[in-house]
Amino acid sequence: MTDDPAADEVLPAGNAAELASARLTLLASARRQVDIRVPRLDDALYASAEDMAELRRIATAGRGAQIRLLLGDPGTALRDGHRLILLMQRLPSVIQVRMPVDEVDLGNPSACLLTDAGGYLFQPDAERPQGRAARIDRPGCAPLRQQFDEMWERAERARMLQPLDL
């Protein structure tokens, strides 16, 4: 801990291990809402037992619980049986998945995690294990939230991920 409380809110995010730790810290600090944007889900993203426990906690937090996932390649996540997709199929009213269709969004290589506590993790290039993160930084989170909301509005529901009710 330092004497500056704001300095304690910045999270290291310069390599894969720090990114994983920052993701878990942010998920643990979220109360009821999380927004996630990733071009592609793989086993290293949101698939650990700890990540899944936090996502399940958020999704079952009661009234107002919401997880929005903007996913560039939902087909691959479905074929690979990613754990987050399986959770989404169990809780489709709480975990919503959309895929970008607009050219400007399809060309965006970045990834982010935004929490209702004002925290964020931002990677300018999702393929590179480096970025910036803060547990609580509402001014830093605001432009990322605006960009996410705009992309969300332009995106289409990922219908291929919907469970079939036969």
Automatic annotation (TrEMBL):
DUF7931 domain segment(s): 17-162
Full protein name: DUF7931 domain-containing protein
Organism, scientific name: Frateuria flava
